[in-house]
Amino acid sequence: MIKYSEDHEWIKMDGDVGTVGITDYAQKALGDVVFVELPPAGDSFAKGDEVAVVESVKAASEIYAPVTGEIVEINGTLEDAPETVNSSPMDNAWFFKIKLSDMSELDGMLSEEDYNAFVEGLE
Amino acid sequence: MSDNNILNTPLYDLHLSLGAKMVPFAGYAMPVQYPLGVMGEHLHVREKAGLFDVSHMGQAFLRGTGAADIATSFESLVPGNIAGLKTGRMRYTMLLNDSGGILDDLMVTRWSGDNCLFLVVNAACKTQDFAHIEEKLAGVATLKRIEDRALIALQGPMAANILAEICPEVADMAFMSAIETDIDGVNCFVSRCGYTGEDGFEISIPNADTVKITEKLLAHPDVEPIGLGARDSLRLEAGLCLYGHDIDTTTSPVEGDLVWAIGKSRRENGGFPGADRVLAELENGTTRKRVGILPEGRAPAREHTEIQDMNGKTIGEITSGGFGPTFGGPVAMGYVASDHSAEGTAVQLIVRGKPRPAKVVKLPFVTQRYYKKPKA
């Protein structure tokens, strides 16, 4: 199952662990990504907390936790290859894996169809 | 400034047709980037040539009304050697306030003919600058704002060859010189200067003909349109100041490491606003200084990032910082306490609450490649 936030993040679920990244729309809006700062594994975040930072040539943008939970793994390859966020936002450039503390938070998120409609409304 | 008051340059429709992302800047709708993106645009300028719309900047003629040389009169407002400019030569200088703070930085050209200077000032400062000049030189000079001309810049190692295809005279122009000439039957002011660290030109064109000349240059396969995003990263790599960020009314030319722009005779004789302070600083030094800052690692340090010494004491602040596409990593400049301004000094930058190592370095980050005339 994959869900989306209105902040342009995706979360792909495997049991109670979700893999989180940013969408193609988000990477296009940010432009060339030159740095990604990820939280240390083991830290916990509430839904809406600032959890990571993506920097383009122009500016730094915060990434907010789409759900509440504990970071169980981060994608270390982004440290040396931040440009992956532009080339493979939905696959190779996942940011972190988070163990959800409240699965019901997913109910409030967008389906792929709803997210696509949401993005179309922005353009 | 509200959106209702936002101004468009003569190239507005062309920017839209090129797919530009437009942003408000100094009261104008300006392109921040085109579909190529900031990184691609930046690299293209360093490799080939890029075209910038800088029509938002203020252009004016300043004419002496009496017998006095206008360049000499203008020296009462700036610390540069303007009187020594030959006709058709230009210089970077600064308008100073009475306490030696920088009101704006600008380009001054001694124009051919009737006791005249051509000025190009920053967009955000132009209203105040022109009023200031008129007030201070009342009775001595008249200022004519040039509102019927746009300004474009063609920058990059291929700029001269490309522009020479439609304007052969530019090929052997000296760097920091200007001519008035016809391009495709249009009267243009062409200056060999720029804000990227590369060779290049700025071209002042009558509003009505700007699209025509710009499209002609963009038709060249090696020219890409470049937005404000890459303009900023290019000038930062080249170590060039952005007014309102790296220099402002609180910084003097000495603190701003712009001593090279203070004329030799001006250092001896003063005669410019704030000369007491500036000459004293030249003699005794300053408590802070603008320096290059090289962050270690990949995290950029943006404007207003706190700079600390290795013991955690605040010693300054980043004034411009980001990623240098040609340099291939984060680059920055800022002010530090002078006792920490030596090249190689280790400092730390507080980025999102965490100290990150950095060091003081010599500017620029990318070697400036201005045109040097071959020796005959």
* Net shape of chain A: globular
DSSP E strands of chain A, number: 9
Number of helices in the DSSP assignment of chain A? 4
DSSP helix fraction of chain B:
10-25%
Strand-helix topology:
The complex is a heterodimer of chains A (123) and B (376).
Chain A: E1 2-4, E2 9-14, E3 17-22, H1 24-30, E4 33-37, E5 44-45, E6 50-56, E7 60-64, E8 69-74, H2 77-80, H3 84-87, E9 96-100, H4 112-122
Antiparallel strand pairs in A: 1-2, 2-3, 3-9, 4-6, 5-8, 6-7, 8-9
Chain B: H1 12-17, E1 21-25, E2 28-33, H2 37-47, E3 49-53, E4 58-64, H3 70-74, E5 90-96, E6 102-111, E7 116-121, H4 126-136, E8 141-145, E9 149-155, H5 159-166, E10 178-183, E11 186-191, E12 200-206, H6 210-218, E13 223-225, H7 228-237, H8 264-269, H9 275-284, E14 288-295, E15 306-308, E16 314-324, E17 329-337, E18 346-351, E19 354-361
Parallel strand pairs in B: 3-13
Antiparallel strand pairs in B: 1-2, 3-9, 4-7, 4-8, 5-6, 6-7, 9-12, 10-11, 11-12, 14-17, 14-19, 15-16, 15-18, 16-17, 18-19
Helix pairs in contact in B: 2-7
Entry summary:
The complex is a heterodimer of chains A (123) and B (376). By secondary structure, chain A is of the alpha+beta class. Chain A is 21% helix and 37% strand.
Q: What would your notes on this structure say?
A:
The complex is a heterodimer of chains A (123) and B (376). Chain A has one domain: Beta Barrel (OB fold (Dihydrolipoamide Acetyltransferase, E2P)). In chain A, 21% of the residues lie in helices and 37% in strands. In chain A, β1 and β2 form a beta hairpin. With 123 residues, chain A is an alpha+beta fold. Chain A is globular, with a radius of gyration of 13 Å. Chain B is α+β, with helices and mostly antiparallel strands and 376 residues long. Helices cover 20% and strands 33% of the residues of chain B. In chain B, the strands form four sheets. Chain B has a six-stranded mixed beta sheet with strand order 10-11-12-9-3-13, sandwiched between helices. A six-stranded antiparallel β-barrel of chain B has the order 14-17-16-15-18-19. A five-stranded antiparallel beta sheet of chain B has the order 5-6-7-4-8. The longest helix of chain B has 11 residues, at 37-47.
